[in-house]
Design brief:
two-stranded antiparallel ribbon; Chorismate lyase; 2 domains; alpha+beta; Arc Repressor Mutant, subunit A
């Protein structure tokens, strides 16, 4: 590797990606590693930065493909908004796929997070958010059945449980979210059409109403290159 600096490897990959038309597959990993004179492990490490930028997409069993760059969804974290609301404000079109709504039973962990009894019925809504028909986020909302029953979901549900609750007039007040970078698990990687272990931006959050009651527990997984999240902070005094 001393004769092939990592920065040079990334530059060569960038040149290759820029020369490859969107939708076309790159050479196989073994062929590309041999062509560039590096190990497959080093090649994978170098390619991750291009994946997080949304420039390439690895598909299980199919290879690595070049994708055209889409406009990133940009939002501040000070105000909770749905992806649909953010996209509409930016003039972007998003859609949902892989929608799955089901009744599940609260285990100890979920009962504590939602402040319900163990064994209580919950409604879980899972779906993929797509931009220009590409998966960019995977969202999971889990709510007590008394707040959202399966029969309550409209036939034209567009993907946002938050917007649905707001439109219904629920007095939503605050949200507490934890943010981290994680490797995609198999159950998340498959609907997002990425490889297991690929880096995702992960939010898990509780949504509270004006009385402090937990209304929703959500898990959100974002492909980093398609999102720009930021926060405005005041400077603390002495």
């Amino acid at each position: 590797m001393a004769n092939f600096p990592f920065q040079r490897l990334q530059a060569d990959l960038a040149t290759l990606i820029n020369k490859t038309p969107a939708g076309q597959r790159l050479p196989s990993e073994p062929d590309l590693a041999k062509q560039l004179g590096v190990s497959r492990a080093t090649l994978r490490e170098a390619m991750r930065s291009f994946e997080t930028q949304g420039l390439i997409r690895r598909r299980q069993g199919s290879g690595t493909f070049v994708v055209g760059k889409v406009q990133a969804l940009d939002s501040g974290l000070e105000v909770l908004e749905s992806l649909e609301t953010i996209a509409k404000r930016m003039g972007l079109e998003v859609s949902i796929s892989d929608l799955n709504a089901e009744t599940v039973i609260a285990d100890e962990e979920m009962a504590a997070l939602l402040e319900v009894a163990v064994g209580a019925k919950l409604t879980r809504v899972r779906r993929v958010i797509r931009a220009e028909n590409r998966p960019v986020a995977y969202l999971v909302d889990i709510l007590p059945e008394e707040i959202l029953h399966l029969k309550d979901l409209p036939s034209d549900f567009h993907g946002s449980v938050l917007d649905f609750l707001l439109e219904r007039g629920e007095p939503l007040a605050t949200s507490r979210a934890n943010v981290s970078a994680i490797g995609a698990t198999a159950d998340v990687a498959k609907p997002m059409e990425i490889q297991r272990g690929d880096v995702l931006l992960h939010f898990h959050a509780q949504l509270f109403n004006s009385e402090g009651k937990v209304m929703d527990y959500s898990l959100s997984y974002f492909i980093p290159g398609y999102f720009h999240f930021h926060i405005v902070r005041r400077v603390g005094g002495g």
